[in-house]
Amino acid sequence: GNRTFTMIKPDAVEKGHIGAILDQINASGFRIVAMKLTQMTTADAETFYAVHKERPFFGELVEFMTRGPIVAAILEKENAVEDFRTLIGATNPEDAAEGTIRKKYASSVGENAVHGSDSDENAAIEGAFHFAGREMF
Ligand code: ATP
């Protein structure tokens, strides 16, 4: 697969890290196929994270992801899903490798700066959730 879906989450947008994160994404060889500043509604976040609905942190996750704007984007590169997850680092920034986006910009396991799709199938679903065909380049 050659595409993945990402969000720069509300914590990183609030702290002014959009530019630095996009620079690192571009410098790592990803092409931006689609991108926008948007805010998820509660219904959007509950749908997007439905796989986590039984987890104890689900309510907190929905609150967090809806509290302000995010940058949603589709990225293209050979081996995009796996390479992007390497670039962002572990879910918990304490476990994330040096130099990864989460190591540099995440505050906690919940407020962890960026999302990256975990499979080609989910990348396609998540990209289609946020973008119409005419918004993809
Ligand atoms: P993402 O799907 O955002 O790329 P991930 O695949 O690294 O993250 P998941 O385990 O799928 O992590 O969890 C999805 C999101 O839920 C995390 O990115 C984080 O924002 C939140 N989350 C995960 N674990 C916790 C936790 N223990 N406490 C609070 N929030 C959490």
From TrEMBL:
Residue stretches making up the Nucleoside diphosphate kinase-like domain: 1-135
Top-level EC class: transferase
Provide the E.C. number(s) assigned to this enzyme.
Answer: 2.7.4.6
For this chain, one GO molecular function annotation is: metal ion binding
Query: Which residues are ATP-binding?
Result: K9, F57, R85, T91, R102, N112
Task: State its cofactor.
Answer: Mg(2+)
Primary location class: cytoplasm
The record's family statement is:
Belongs to the NDK family.
What's this protein's name?
Nucleoside diphosphate kinase
Gene name of this polypeptide: ndk
